[in-house]
Amino acid sequence: MSQQPCFSFTARFRVRRGLLGALLALGCALSIAPVLALDARYQDADGDLVADAPTDPGDWIDPDTLVFAYTPVEDPAVYADVWSEFLAHMEETTGKKVQFFPVQSNAAQIEAMRAGRLHISGFNTGSNPLAVNCAGFVPFAMMASADDSFGYEMEIITHPDSGLEKVEDIKGGKLAFTAPTSNSGYKAPSAILKSDFDLVAERDFEPLFSGKHDNSIMGVANGDYPAASVANSVLRRMIARDVIKPEQIVSLYKSQTFPTTGYGYVYNLKPELADKIKHAFFTFDWEGSRLQEEFKQSGEAKFIPISYSKHWDVIRKIDAANGVSYSCN
């Protein structure tokens, strides 16, 4: 599959010191219109910010094989096995064959859904608005702990021999991001570094792009990068699998909690099929499963329903604070 994105984007950083905190504070009265508008091919008659199913049944799709992808944060081969029992449950629930598709980048994942080659997916936090607006993604679920709590934090990490003791020490050096569509790997740290520390990429430090969170974490642990911004849920899972040792990492900063990967389907699935997909997520038995074994490391134990307009409000505000705008090609 092509690795070229189906979109273009520009990002400008115009956040004054302290503005981000005001934007993200709970109960904040400041209202910011979504910076990402639905592409012209989609309709949103009910105002929930996601694409409606087509009104003409002739525009619905009902594929014999459903294609599922998990956000490309780590080695796809690991996750083909992790998701295997869940996908078998989905096959039983939907009556369809379900195929795991190991995407290599956020851009390829979004392009696949926009082109009709991907039907069900987990998009990472930062990619959700782009997938919703450019690919017709309809998120409805998120992983949570047994007590319904959810989320992860962005951490700026370094290694013990880097000479970095605080965030300000990054000035004049290098910082690894993951990809421009990543919340914790790019957008949130860019806004926070600007607003809270007056540090701007290119002006104050050299930005590097690793492509994925595991690349950034391994790069820091091995001393290839002096520092990186990552999702600490990925960091915890890598430590739990003994991919890295806790003593190889030092945390310089930890953010507020963000929503984690959002799971959903493409907007034009036959509605009865979409309902069966939802049912599969909320009836899967985690106990003793490979999914439980993998995600318990970051505290997840089940799927919970979500509202894109509500749960991704903070992410859209980060995009607005960053001056991010997208156009879908």
From TrEMBL:
Belongs to the phosphate/phosphite/phosphonate binding protein family. The keyword DNA-binding does not apply. Keywords: Signal. The gene is phnD_1. InterPro entries: PhnD. This is Phosphate-import protein PhnD. It comes from Thiorhodovibrio winogradskyi. NCBIfam families: 3A0109s03R (TIGR01098).
